[in-house]
Design a protein that fits this description.
Layout: H1 3-25, H2 34-53, H3 77-88, H4 105-117, H5 129-136, E1 159-165, E2 172-174, E3 180-190, E4 194-205, E5 220-227, E6 230-236, E7 241-243, E8 246-252, E9 257-258, E10 263-272, E11 283-295, E12 301-304, E13 315-321, H6 323-326, E14 330-335, H7 338-341, E15 344-347, E16 354-367, E17 371-383, H8 387-390, E18 391-398, E19 401-407, E20 421-426, E21 435-436, E22 441-450, E23 461-468, E24 473-475, E25 487-488, E26 490-499, E27 502-507, E28 512-516, E29 527-539, E30 543-546, E31 549-551, E32 562-567, E33 574-575, E34 586-593, E35 601-602, E36 605-608, E37 613-623, E38 628-639, E39 648-651, E40 663-665
Parallel strand pairs: 2-13, 14-25, 15-26, 31-32
Antiparallel strand pairs: 1-3, 3-10, 4-8, 4-9, 4-11, 5-6, 5-10, 7-8, 11-12, 11-13, 14-16, 16-22, 17-20, 17-21, 17-23, 17-24, 18-19, 18-22, 23-26, 27-29, 28-29, 29-37, 30-36, 32-33, 32-38, 34-37, 35-36, 38-39, 38-40
Length: 667
C-alpha cells in the first residue's frame, strides 16, 4: 500500500469516526447547550489532530500545509488547522463554548510559546513567513511506525499518577555545570500507554540575603527535562516568565513515552552560568513541578496537576555555588619519584658547580576545575652548611619544562647566608600560564644548582625539602582563589647528601634474623642474631673501611667501620643496648666481606677503588634483659681516603633499607 492510499483510508476512517460521533450526540442534542456541544466538538477536533499526527513518525509534525500569514483577528480553515496543531502539541487549550476558527489572544500566546520552543525569534505570536515555513517543514511525508512508542495507540483511555522522587538529585548547582538534577518525579501510566508532551516548571529565589540577585538569568543558562537519562525538552532561562518572584515555563517534551502500568523517571535539570557573581554564591532557590501534560491511548490531551507549583507537593530547595566555595574543587599534592625523595648521596664537584640536581619530586592533581598556579613555596633545610651556601639557584620543572626560577645572589635579600632553614618561593607562575586541567595529575620536580665544595660547603652536607599544599597560591578556572580547605597533601625529601668524593650505600641482598638458643636452657635466655646486607660504592677516591662494628649511633666517625644497634619495632625506643632500660643486655657486632669479596681485603680493612662496589655484611648479636621483639639496624659507615680509622661518616638512609627482619627473643 502506498502512502497516498493509506492516508486516504485513514482520512476516510476519521470521517467515519466523526459521523459516528454525530449519530451518538444527535439524539441528545436538545438536552445539551450550544457551549457543551462546542466543547465536545473541540475535543473531537483535538483527537482528530492527534490521530493525524500519527500518520507520520515525526514528533511535532502536522498534516496541513499553511499558505497564509495569520495574526490576531484572522479567521477561516487555516486558523482552525493552526489551532488543531497547537492543541495537539499541548500549547493551546480551547475554552468551553469557544469554537475554533478565530485567531484570538489565547492563540497568539500559544503561537508565541511554540515559536520559543522551536527556536524562532522573536517569539511574538505572529504566524508569518518564518513560522509558516518552520511548520510546513514538519508536514508528514512518510508513513508512521505503528510501534513507535512516542505515539500511544492502543485505543484505550489512560491516566497518570505523578509522585515526588527524592533520590538521585543534588542540592548544589555548581557554576559552569551542565544538567544538574535538582528535582525528580515519577510518572506512572494507567489504562494505556501515555506520552508526556510538556512539563511546567516553577522556580523561586528564596534566600533572605538582600545582596544576592533574584533574577534567574543571573544563575542559570537553561532548564531541561530529563527522562531515562536523556534530555527530552529544554528552555533557556531567559524564556521563563516571571510573576512576582516566581519564574515559570511550560517546557515542551518529545520522546517521553511511558508504557501502561510502568513508571517513568523524570528529572528537572539545570545548567548553570560559568561566571556566578560572588554575592549570588550559596543562595537558595526552590524548584517545583507545576503540571504534566500528556496524551493517552485515545489521543486525548490530558493534564495532571499533582505538583501545583511553588508551595505544592513536589518541590526541592537547592543552592547555586561558585567553584571556590562549593567544596568540590581540589588541588592535591602527592610525593612522586622515591629515588629523588628518599635519602641518597649525590656526587658534586670540588672545583665547579653541579647543576640541575633533583631535590624534590611531586605531583599536583586538579579535581572539578582547571587550576591556575600562581606561587609555590618550598621549605628547605640543610645540615653542615647554610641552604644558600650549598645551592645557588632553584628551578621548578613541570613535565620537564622550567616554569619558574629563584636565583641566589648578593644583590638581593635572598643572598648566600649560613641560615639552615629557608623558604624558596617560585612566583609569577600565572605569567607562564601554568595550568593543571581538571582531572589531570601533573609531575613536578624542584631542582637545585649546587656550588662547588670548599669553604662552608663540604663533603657530607645535606638538604631536605618540604612542600605543604596549604601554602600554594592558586586560582580555579573562574579566577577565584582556591581556599586552604581545598588544598591537600604534602611532599618531602630528606637527607640528600652531597660529596665530591666518598661512598654511596645501597641495599645488597636479603637480610635475615634468627634466635640462638642457650644450650643450658632451651626456653629462656636466648640470643637474637640479625644480619644486614649492603653494598658500598666509592667515587672519585679510594675508600678504606675498617672490618669491625660497634654498638653506636655516634655522629662522630669512629675506628669501627660500621655502627649498628638493636631496636624494638613495637615502640619508639631505640638503644644500642636494646630497648630503653635494658641495661644488662649484651650486644656484639661484626662487619665482614661477603663471600667472594676477598679481593677487596687489605689486612683488617676493605679497600674500595674509585668506581668499585663491595658487598658487606653486618651482624648484630643481642641478648636482651627482658623478652621482646627486636631487629637489627645499620646506622652508619665510617671511612677514610687512606688506610686508617674512619674520618668521614655516611649515614645508612633511608633506615628501612638497612634493617633486618624482626625476631621474638626470650630472656
Amino acid at each position: 500500500m502506498n502512502f497516498k492510499s493509506k492516508t486516504a483510508k485513514l482520512a476516510a476512517g476519521l470521517v467515519g469516526f466523526a459521523f459516528a460521533f454525530s449519530l451518538v450526540v444527535a439524539p441528545t442534542a436538545k438536552a445539551q447547550t450550544n457551549s457543551e456541544l462546542q466543547a465536545m466538538i473541540n475535543t473531537l477536533l483535538a483527537q482528530i489532530a492527534s490521530l493525524q499526527g500519527q500518520i507520520g513518525g515525526t514528533t511535532g509534525s502536522t498534516s496541513h500545509t499553511f499558505t497564509m500569514d495569520l495574526t490576531v483577528g484572522s479567521t477561516g480553515s487555516e486558523v482552525v488547522a493552526l489551532q488543531q496543531m497547537l492543541v495537539a502539541k499541548g500549547f493551546l487549550t480551547m475554552p468551553a463554548g469557544v469554537a475554533m476558527g478565530y485567531f484570538g489572544e489565547a492563540t497568539r500566546s500559544a503561537v508565541a510559546a511554540w515559536q520559543a520552543a522551536n527556536g524562532i525569534t522573536p517569539a511574538s505570536g505572529y504566524f508569518g513567513p518564518i513560522t509558516r515555513a518552520k511548520v510546513n517543514s514538519m508536514v508528514v511525508v512518510t508513513p508512521g511506525n505503528p510501534s513507535n512508542p512516542s505515539n500511544p495507540s492502543n485505543g484505550q483511555a489512560g491516566d497518570v499518577t505523578v509522585t515526588s522522587r527524592s533520590s538521585g538529585t543534588d542540592n548544589q548547582v555548581i557554576e559552569g555545570s551542565s544538567n544538574t538534577k535538582v528535582l525528580g518525579f515519577d510518572v506512572k501510566a494507567q489504562g494505556s500507554d501515555v506520552n508526556v508532551t510538556s512539563v511546567r516548571v516553577e522556580m523561586e529565589h528564596t534566600d533572605s540575603d538582600t545582596a544576592s540577585s533574584d533574577r534567574l538569568t543571573r544563575y542559570a543558562d537553561s532548564v531541561a527535562i530529563m527522562y531515562n537519562g536523556k534530555v527530552v525538552g529544554s528552555a533557556d532561562a531567559s524564556e521563563f516568565s516571571k510573576d512576582s518572584n516566581v519564574y515559570s515555563r511550560n517546557i515542551a517534551v518529545s520522546g517521553a513515552s511511558v508504557s501502561e502500568d510502568q513508571t517513568g523517571r523524570f528529572y528537572v535539570v539545570v545548567s548553570a552560568l560559568d561566571n556566578l557573581d560572588s554575592n549570588d554564591a550559596g543562595t537558595d532557590w526552590e524548584v517545583a513541578l507545576g503540571q504534566v501534560r500528556f496524551t493517552d491511548g485515545t489521543g486525548a490531551i490530558l493534564t495532571d496537576t499533582t505538583g501545583t507549583g511553588i508551595g505544592g507537593s513536589i518541590t526541592q530547595t537547592f543552592t547555586f555555588e561558585d567553584l571556590a566555595t562549593s567544596g568540590d574543587v581540589k588541588l592535591t599534592v602527592n610525593e612522586d619519584d622515591s629515588s629523588v625523595n628518599d635519602a641518597h648521596t649525590v656526587q658534586v664537584d670540588d672545583t665547579s658547580d653541579t647543576n640541575d640536581v633533583d631535590i624534590l619530586s611531586f605531583t599536583l592533581k586538579a579535581d572539578n576545575s582547571d587550576i591556575h598556579l600562581k606561587e609555590i613555596p618550598f621549605d628547605i633545610t640543610s645540615v653542615g652548611a647554610g641552604v644558600t651556601e650549598i645551592a645557588n639557584d632553584f628551578h621548578l620543572m613541570m613535565d620537564g619544562q622550567d616554569v619558574g626560577t629563584v636565583t641566589i645572589d648578593t644583590g638581593n635579600s635572598f643572598a648566600s647566608s649560613t641560615n639552615t632553614t629557608r623558604t624558596v618561593t617560585v612566583t609569577n607562575l600565572d605569567d607562564d600560564d601554568v595550568v593543571i586541567s581538571s582531572g589531570d595529575e601533573v609531575s613536578f620536580t624542584l631542582t637545585a644548582d649546587l656550588n662547588d665544595t670548599g669553604g662552608a660547603f663540604g663533603n657530607g652536607d645535606y638538604l631536605g625539602v618540604t612542600l605543604n599544599s596549604d601554602s600554594i597560591d592558586a586560582e580555579d578556572q573562574n579566577g577565584d582563589s582556591v581556599s586552604t580547605a581545598d588544598l591537600t597533601g604534602t611532599a618531602d625529601s630528606a637527607n640528600i647528601s652531597f660529596s665530591a668524593s666518598g661512598i654511596m650505600l645501597s641495599t645488597g641482598g636479603s637480610d635475615s634474623s634468627s634466635v640462638l638458643v642457650n644450650s643450658s636452657n632451651v626456653t629462656t635466655d636466648d640470643q637474637g642474631k640479625f644480619t644486614i646486607n649492603f653494598d658500598v660504592t666509592a667515587f672519585e677516591d679510594t675508600a678504606w673501611i675498617a672490618l669491625s662494628a660497634a654498638s653506636s649511633t655516634s655522629a662522630t666517625p669512629s675506628t669501627a667501620g660500621a655502627e649498628v644497634f638493636v631496636e624494638s619495632p613495637n615502640s619508639d625506643d631505640v638503644s644500642v643496648a636494646g630497648v630503653s632500660g635494658n641495661t644488662t643486655a649484651t650486644t656484639t657486632a661484626t662487619l665482614e666481606l661477603a663471600s667472594g669479596q676477598s679481593n677487596f681485603a687489605d689486612g683488617n680493612y676493605a679497600k674500595i677503588g674509585a668506581g668499585q662496589t663491595v658487598h658487606l655484611v653486618a651482624t648484630v648479636y643481642f641478648d636482651p634483659a627482658t623478652t621482646g621483639v627486636f631487629r637489627g639496624q645499620l646506622y652508619a659507615i665510617n671511612f677514610a681516603t687512606t688506610k686508617a680509622a674512619g674520618t668521614t661518616q655516611q649515614l645508612a638512609l633511608p633506615t628501612s633499607d638497612y634493617q633486618s627482619p624482626s625476631e621474638s627473643v626470650q630472656n
